[in-house]
Design a protein that fits this description.
Layout lengths: L1 H23 L7 H14 L2 H13 L7 H16 L6 E12 L3 E7 L3 E3 L1 E3 L9 E10 L17 E4 L9 H14 L4 E5 L22 E4 L1 H11 L5 E6 L2 E15 L7 E7 L9 H20 L7 E7 L2 H4 L1 H9 L7 E6 L7 E5 L7 H7 L10 E3 L8 H5 L5 E6 L4 H4 L12 H20 L10 H11 L2 H8 L5
Bound molecules: zinc ion.
Amino acid sequence: MKRLVLLITLLCGSVSVGVTQGKAAPTAGDDPHDDIARIVGYANTRGGALIFLETLTDTVGGRVTGSPQSHAASDLILKTLKDAGFESAHFEEYTLESGWQRGSARGQVLSPVTAPLYVGSYGWVPGTSGRIEIPVVDLGTPPGNDLPQSAESVRGTAVLVDVHSIGNAPTPVMRALMAHQLAQAGAAAMLVPSDKPDRMLYTSAYGLYPRAPLPVLSVAREDTLFLRRLLAKGPVRIQLDIQNTFTGSTNERNVIADLPGTNPGEMVLVGAHFDSWDPAQGADDNGSGVAAVLEAARILKSLGTRPRCTIRFAFFSGEEEANLGSRAYVAMHQAEIDRLRAFLLMDDGAQLPLGFATNGRDDLVAPLQKTLQPLVGLGAGKIDADADMESDNASFMVLGVPSLTLQVEPGDYDVRHHAITDTFDKIDPRKLALDTAVMAVAAYSLANAETRPGRRLSPNEVKELLKKTGLESAQELQFGSLQP
Ligand SMILES: [Zn+2]
């Protein structure tokens, strides 16, 4: 409670400072259209997002939650905000229940031939307690989430299984449920074929945090095909040596900064997660989102804009495990949730922006088409009710807050998502600049609108929404059963 009171005091304290600065800024426009034109111009000509992203990726690199790199990233974000004049920018700490450190992952086919086997650990999975030699069992593509054959047949084996999405439930639901059944049956490891090209591996902890029940390993697509060719002819034995460490509970933090509005009783929250995976630099997931949101904050600040309600910028950690940062945020700010007009998220990479998804809320589509009309000229005026629970948008959806996700052209994002190729050189500066413009204009327009885009849903309406969108299993995996 004490902490909450302190935060509210900080928020209120920052209001007068910010408004004074806004008035003093020589470039502040009284006409919202002028402000929007300036925002778009700044985003597309200053290159601020790209410059920040290069610093983040090349000086900090991959940022696993709880790691020194994650802390360095939050230090860099806070310093950048302070340098931009966000005097009240601050950390908000929370406890990371379970820290994890990746070690080496070695695999080899032992028989009927000896050959290398290219494997890598998923996140928050245990190691193998030394080198183990085990047979491989292939479950293929099970039709549902249940173990398709007897527990005895997988005991003491490495189990190859193609996990997939069932209905609207994302793939991690089956991955997590299957991992638990395999562990219960006594399997030694779960091998998940990677869908990346060129022997690239995949990593994730979604559904596996705080601790996977057995080693869950990504196996290169080519190596999976090789194993299956061998299995078609007879038994296959492999060797695995996986070294991972759980580091216990530690502190993590979000970074929060406010651009005060003239009516601070309402707020638009704009967010992106700064944690990432470690095989690469986390440039597109989600360095690009952090860079765009941070530059949007700097642009709005430097223009001295004074929207009707406060715009808060939130940089979350722990998204890759289970939306830990945004969940800590909503727990810490319960008293302010009713004040939220909307949460805006960027977490699909620096591709061409198309518009926003309302995460299942049909009632928000028409009001948003009106409020976000300035995005039409940027090619990003599409508003639809598409829904997923794959990022921090979920933490606000389950509270009934209008939760809007930036929609982008898919491009080649999925090829490098959570893979070794998520590096700075893949980022298209023009697309990142456009995303920055869209995030800034959307935040500004929502904050400046006369009314909210929609109301907060009741817990029962949230339940109905999750049922309608088929996302109940994804929600349960992350949040447990909803309170009625
Ligand atoms: Zn992400």
